[in-house]
Design goal:
With 113 residues, this protein is α+β, with helices and mostly antiparallel strands. It has a single domain, classed as Gcn5-related N-acetyltransferase (GNAT) (Aminopeptidase, 3-Layer(aba) Sandwich), CATH 3.40.630.30. It is 21% helix and 33% strand. A hairpin with a 5-residue loop joins strand 1 and strand 2. The radius of gyration is 14 Å and the shape is globular.
């Protein structure tokens, strides 16, 4: 049986865009690598920074963001914590295209330690 185990997307084509992600509890361990891969693709597409919001107290999601290079921002909205990652865009004057990537455990790249 084939199934989607995780999803990750960039929510606009603004140079500073929100990134979102979801992962099945049955397939833990794929999201950090997926997020890192999306950040690399976003930099290549011309994005300058990505931000993410998590529900306050969602320590697993916060840990994924921290491992993927995001830092807690001073901003906070309602019951959400904000995180941001600055990217080194390859073409800073290019308007980025929206990006989506589906990840399966076998296709997940490794993060060097």
């Amino acid at each position: 049986m084939k199934a989607v185990v995780a999803a990750c997307d960039i929510k606009s084509n603004a140079l500073n865009a929100e990134i979102g992600y979801w992962s099945s509890q049955a397939h833990r361990g794929v999201m950090t690598n997926a997020l890192v891969a999306m950040c690399d693709m976003a930099a290549g597409a011309g994005f300058v920074a990505l931000f993410a919001r998590t529900k306050t107290g969602n320590v697993r999601s916060e840990a994924v963001l921290k491992r993927a290079g995001f830092q807690r921002s001073h901003g906070r909205t309602d019951d959400r914590e904000c995180f941001i990652r600055t990217l080194k865009a390859e073409e800073p004057n290019k308007s980025p295209e929206p990006t989506t990537m589906a990840v399966t455990p076998r296709a997940t790249p490794r993060i060097p330690k």
